[in-house]
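Title: Prediction job returns without error message
Component: structure pipeline
Severity: low
Priority: P3
Assignee: unassigned

Description:
Job completed but the reporter wants confirmation the result is attached to the right record. Sequence as submitted:
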Amino acid sequence: MQLTDLFDFPNFEHKALFEEAINLWDPISNLDQYLSNQKKDTGINSIGKGSQVDPTAKLTGPVIIGSNCEIKEGVLIRGGVIIGDNCVIGHGCEVKHSIIMNGTNIAHFNYIGDSVLGSGVNFAAGAITANFKHGTKNEIVGIEADGKKIPTGLKKFGSLVGDEAKIGCNAVLDPGTIIGKGTIVYPLAAIRGSIPANKIVKYRQNLEVIDRK
C-alpha cells in the first residue's frame, strides 16, 4: 500500500508532505518540520481567503487553514495542524497534529488526533480517531498494510482516512487504523486495522424490547 492508494494529493497545496514520504506515516512524522519551514512565509497561524473562524474557537499554532473554510463555535485546533480548502470544523471539535485535506467536513464533538484525513471525507457527530495505546507494554503504534503489521515508531498516531470516506456517528477508529477510499463506516462501529477501499463496515447490535412491569 502507498499513500497514492489513499489520497489524491496533487491538487493539495501541501502535497510536498506526501510526495517526499517513504512510509505511510511520514506525513505525520514530518509535519512539525514542514510547519516550521512554512512559518517563514505564513507566520504562526495562516488563514486563507474567505475562511471564517468563530471568536470562541482557539487556535494554538502553528496552524495553516486554507480558503473558504468554516471553523465553528468552541473548536480547539492545536499541536500543528494543516487544514485544506473548503473544509468545515464543526462545533466543539478538537483537531491535534493532523492534516485535513480539501473539502472535508468534521461535524461536531469530534476528536481528530495525529491523523491524515483525505479529500471529501465526512466525520459524523462524535466520531473520533484515537491516537494512543492505553494499557499495553508496547506503546508504539503499528499499522496493517499489505498483510503485515508494521511499527510506525510513533507513540501517538491516529488514522489514515482515504478520500471520500464517510465515518458514522460515534464511531471510533483505533490507533493505526487505515480506511480506504470511498469506504463507509456505520455509526457506533469500533474499527481496528486496515479496511479496503469502497467497502461498507456495518455495526449490528441485538436489542431486547420488553414490557414494563
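Comment from assignee: result matches the submitted record. Residues 3-201 form a domain with the UDP N-Acetylglucosamine Acyltransferase; domain 1 fold (CATH 2.160.10.10).
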